[in-house]
C-alpha cells in the first residue's frame, strides 16, 4: 500500500495515477496534526489496513490535480547512517558503523523547495537514500529480528552544507538545516518491496543522472543498522532511519535546480533548490574529481564566499 498526504494533509491511498481520500477511515485516531496521525496509524496499522483498502476503491482523484505533501511531516527521530556504502566496491573494508540525527524541521515534500542558507559552506549537496520507517517500538533489536520492526520505505534526501567552520564541528550544523530532508512522494508498506537490499537508486539534477547505485552495496545491512541504532536509543512508530548513500555521484546543488530521486518501487521524488545568493559550482561529481586526481569537494566559483 502507498500512503500519502495531499492538499490540506488529507490522508490518501495511491493506486496507479490516482489518490483515494481515506481520511474518514482514520478520523477516530486522536491527533493534533498530521504527524501524530500517521505515527498513530502506523502503530495500529493492523486494525486499519482492511478499512483503508475498502475505502480506496473507485476512480479516485488524479494525482496530477492534487498537491502531495510529505508522508511523515514530523517524525520523532530521523537517524541517518554515515559512510554506509562500499562505494561500488572500491573501499577496502567497511567504515565503522556510525550515524547522526537530523531535525524534524528539515522535512519537506514533493515539489517543495530546499533553501540554501547564507553560511560559508564549501558546497551544498544532497545524498540520494532509501530510508526505512519504523512500525513498532524498537529497543535493543537483534539484527535477525530487525525486519519485523519495519513498517515501510521512503525516498530520502540527506542535504548537506559541507565545510562549515570550525573544523570538526560538523554534523549538526551541516545536516539539520531547515528543508534539508526532502522525502516522499509516498510511504510504501514493506510488503510491496520484495528485497530492500537489492534496489536501484537514481538521482538526477536538471535531468542529468548524477547518482546511480544499488542498496546491495551497503557496508552495514539494514538489519545491522537497526540493531546498532536501537542499542543506543529507542525508535518509535513513524521514526525514519536513512540507510546512507554512495558518495561517488554527489555534486553541487544550486539555485534553480530541479532534483529528482527514484528508488525502485518508491515512486519519484521531485523538489527544487533556491539560493538567494546565487552561488555557483562546477557540475562535476566526486567521481569526476577522483578521475582527475583532485581531492576534496568541487570549489565554489561564483557568489558570496567564493575564494
Q: Mind explaining what this structure looks like?
A:
There is one protein chain. The chain has about 300 residues and is mainly β. The chain folds into 2 domains: about 1-70, no CATH class; about 80-300, Fumarylacetoacetate hydrolase, domain 2 (Alpha-Beta Complex), CATH 3.90.850.10. The chain is built from 5 helices and 19 strands. Strand 16 and strand 17 form a beta hairpin. It is globular, with a radius of gyration of 19 Å. The termini are far apart. About 45% of the residues are buried. The mean pLDDT is about 95.
Write a brief caption for the model.
By secondary structure, this protein is mostly beta strands.
> What would you say the CATH architecture of the largest domain is?
Alpha-Beta Complex
From the alpha-carbon coordinates, what is the Rg to the nearest angstrom? 19 Å
Number of helices: 5
**What number of domains?**
2
Mean pLDDT value: 97
Structural class comes to mainly beta
Overall body shape:
globular
CATH topology of the largest domain, by name, is Fumarylacetoacetate hydrolase, domain 2
Q: Helicity range of the residues? A: 10-25%
Low-confidence stretches: none
Query: What is the terminal separation in angstroms?
Result: 50 Å
Largest sheet: 12 strands, mixed
SSE pattern, N- to C-terminal: EEEHHEEEEEEEEHEEEHEEEEHE
Q: CATH top level of the largest domain?
A: Alpha Beta
Task: Classify the oligomer.
Answer: single chain
Please supply descriptive tags for the structure shown above.
mainly beta, Fumarylacetoacetate hydrolase, domain 2, 12-stranded mixed β-sheet, 307 residues, single chain
Amino acid at each position: 500500500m502507498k500512503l500519502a498526504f495531499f492538499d490540506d494533509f488529507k490522508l490518501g491511498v495511491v493506486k496507479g495515477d490516482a489518490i483515494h481520500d481515506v481520511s474518514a477511515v482514520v478520523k477516530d485516531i486522536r491527533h493534533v496534526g498530521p504527524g501524530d496521525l500517521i505515527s498513530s496509524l502506523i502503530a495500529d496499522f493492523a486494525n486499519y489496513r482492511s478499512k483503508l483498502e475498502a475505502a480506496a476503491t473507485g476512480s479516485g482523484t488524479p494525482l496530477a490535480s492534487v498537491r502531495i505533501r510529505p508522508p511523515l511531516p514530523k517524525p520523532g527521530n530521523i537517524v541517518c547512517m554515515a559512510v554506509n556504502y562500499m562505494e561500488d566496491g572500491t573501499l577496502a573494508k567497511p567504515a565503522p558503523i556510525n550515524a547522526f540525527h537530523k531535525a524534524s524541521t528539515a522535512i519537506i515534500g514533493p515539489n517543495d523547495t530546499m533553501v540554501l542558507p547564507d553560511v560559508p559552506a564549501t558546497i551544498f549537496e544532497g545524498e540520494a537514500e532509501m530510508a526505512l520507517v519504523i512500525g513498532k517500538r524498537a529497543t535493543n533489536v537483534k539484527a535477525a529480528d530487525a525486519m519485523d520492526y519495519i513498517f515501510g520505505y521512503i525516498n530520502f534526501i540527506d542535504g548537506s552544507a559541507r565545510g562549515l567552520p570550525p573544523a570538526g564541528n560538523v554534523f549538526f550544523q551541516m545536516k539539520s538545516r531547515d528543508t534539508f530532508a526532502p522525502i516522499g512522494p509516498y510511504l510504501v508498506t514493506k510488503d510491496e518491496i520484495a528485497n530492500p537490499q537489492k534496489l536501484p537508486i537514481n538521482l538526477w539534477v536538471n535531468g542529468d543522472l548524477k547518482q546511480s547505485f544499488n542498496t546491495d552495496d551497503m557496508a552495514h545491512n539494514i538489519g545491522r543498522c537497526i540493531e546498532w541504532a536501537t542499542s543506543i536509543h529507542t525508535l518509535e512508530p513513524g521514526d525514519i532511519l536513512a540507510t546512507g548513500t554512495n558518495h561517488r555521484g554527489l555534486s553541487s546543488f544550486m539555485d534553480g535546480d530541479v532534483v529528482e530521486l527514484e528508488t525502485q518501487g518508491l515512486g519519484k521524488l521531485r523538489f527544487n533548490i533556491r539560493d538567494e545568493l546565487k552561488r555557483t559550482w562546477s557540475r562535476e561529481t566526486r567521481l569526476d574529481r577522483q578521475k582527475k586526481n583532485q581531492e576534496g569537494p568541487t570549489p565554489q566559483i561564483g557568489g558570496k564566499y567564493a575564494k
